[in-house]
Design goal:
Blueprint lengths: L8 H21 L1 H12 L7 H12 L8 H30 L1 H6 L1 H32 L7 H12 L8 H6 L1
Helix pairs in contact: 1-4, 2-3, 4-6, 6-7
Length: about 170
Amino acid sequence: EYSCEYGSLKFYALCGVGGVLSCGLTHTAVVPLDLVKCRMQVDPQKYKSIFNGFSVTIKEDGVRGLAKGWAPTFFGYSMQGLCKFGFYEVFKILYGNMLGEENAYLWRTSLYLAASASAEFFADIALAPMEAAKVRIQTQPGYANTLRQAVPKMFAEEGIWAFYKGVAPLWMR
C-alpha cells in the first residue's frame, strides 16, 4: 500500500516535508562547522584551521557562539529542501507527461536531471535570503547576532537586492 496517490497534493506535500526534515535539520546540525569554515574563508589569519577556528570562537563568544546563524540556516535550508524535494516530483511528472510514457522511460536519466535542475532553480531562490543573512551574522562581527536583527538591517541598507546577491553563485554551484 502507498501512503497516498502518486502525484496528488498529499504526495507533493509529503515530499516537501521530507525535504524540510532532511535539509533543514542536517544543515542546522552542522552550523558550528559551517561557522568556522566561513570565518576561515573571510579571515584566514585569525582562523588558521578548523580546530583553531573552534578554539578562537569559543574563547571569544563562548560555546553559544558556535550556534551563530542557526536560525537562517534552519529556515533557509528548510525552504530549500521543501522546494527541492517537492518541485523535483512536480517537474518529473510534468516533463514525463510532456514526453509521453515511452519516451519518459527511454529518456529517464535526462528527465530526472531536467526535473532536478528545475527544482534547484526555485530552491535556491528560496534559500538565498536566509543564506545572505547567515553569512552576515557569522562573518561580520557586530553586524547582527540574530536573524531578527540581520533582516531589517540588511533591507534598510541595501533593499531587497541584499537578499539575492548570492543566488547566481548558488545556481552555478
